[in-house]
Amino acid sequence: MEPRWFALRRVRVPCLPAGAPDVRVLHLSDLHLVPRQTRKRDWVRGLATLEPDLVVHTGDHLAAMDAVPAALDSYGPLLDRPGVFVLGSNDYYPPTLKNPLRYFNDSHRKGADLTPQVLPTQDLVDGLTGRGWEDLTHRRVRLPVAGADLELVGTDDAHLGLDDYARVAAPAASDADLTIGVTHAPYQRVLDAMTADGARLLIAGHTHGGQLRVPGYGALVTNCDLDTTRASGLSRWWPGAGSAPSVQAPPDAAWLHVSAGLGGNPYTPFRFCCRPEATLLTLSAGGAAQA
C-alpha cells in the first residue's frame, strides 16, 4: 500500500534576502516511472493545481525503456511552468534485479550493477527542454521567478561519478537574490563545493528517504555518503558538515532539502514509514524554517 500512498509536504525555507517576495518551488524527484503506474502518473499531473512558481526535478525520472512518453504526460501542465532538472543514474540505465541487502555493504560503489542497456536519455532531455525546462547538467543559469532573481547551478549524477562541479564552479552571483545548487545524489563533495561557492539552498533526491525507516530511529541507509539524519527533509549544510553532523550549524549555513521521492526500483516496490512524496518549498525572507 505505502508505495502508492503519495504525500505532499509543505516546507517554508527562510533563504531569501529581506524584502524579497515568497517563491513557491515544487520539488519532484525519483519517479522511477513505469508506464503502467497510472495512479502515480495521475497524482503527479494533479500537482499542477498548486501553480508553483518553479518546478525543480532532481532526477531518476525513468524505470523502463518505454517510459519517456509516460513521464512527459505525467508532468503535463507542470511543463507550462518554469522548471529545471538534472539527471540520475536511472535516467541513463534501467533498474536491475538485485538483493536489497547489498545496500548495506556496497551502496557507494559507482556503477556496481549497470546493465549493457541504455535508456533513451536524450529523448527525455529533448522532451523537457522542448517544453521550456532548463537542463542544469553542469550548467549555471539565471531565472527571474515570481519577482526574485535566482541563480541555479547543477551537476550530473554523483552516484555514477559523472559529477564535475569544477566545470561550473564560480562564486555565487552577488546581484542574485539566491543561488540554488541542484544535484541528484547528495554526495558530500558536491554539497561542500556548492556551499563553498555561496549557494544558500541545495536541492537533491536519490536517497528515497531510506525507503524502509525504523520507527523512532529513522533511515538505515542513504545510498550515498550523506548521513542518515539528513536522508530526507530540510536540514542545514556547510563545508565539512558531513564530518560533524551533530555540531550546531553556523549562522551562514545553507539549507539542504532532500526529497524521499515518488518511486523506487520496480523490483523492490516496498516502503515503510517513508511515504512517497513531493514537496512544495516556500522560499521566504529570513525567519525560521517551518514544516
What are the low-pLDDT stretches, counting only 5+ consecutive residues below 50? none
Mean pLDDT: 93
Q: How much helical structure, as a percent, in the residues?
A: 10-25%
The CATH architecture can be given as 4-Layer Sandwich
Side-by-side strand order of the widest sheet = 1-14-2-3-4-5
End-to-end CA span: 25 Å
Report the sheet-strand fraction: 15-25%
Task: State the domain count.
Answer: 1
**CATH topology heading:** Purple Acid Phosphatase, chain A, domain 2
Gross geometry: globular
What order do the helices and strands follow? EEHEHEHEEEEHEEEEEE
Number of strands: 14
Compute the gyration radius: what is it? 17 Å
Number of helices: 4
Secondary structure category: alpha/beta
* Main sheet record: 6 strands, mixed
Broad CATH class: Alpha Beta
How would you summarize this macromolecular structure in one to three sentences?
The protein is of the alpha/beta class. Helices cover 12% and strands 24% of the residues.
Index terms:
Purple Acid Phosphatase, chain A, domain 2, 6-stranded mixed β-sheet, 291 residues, 12% helix, alpha/beta
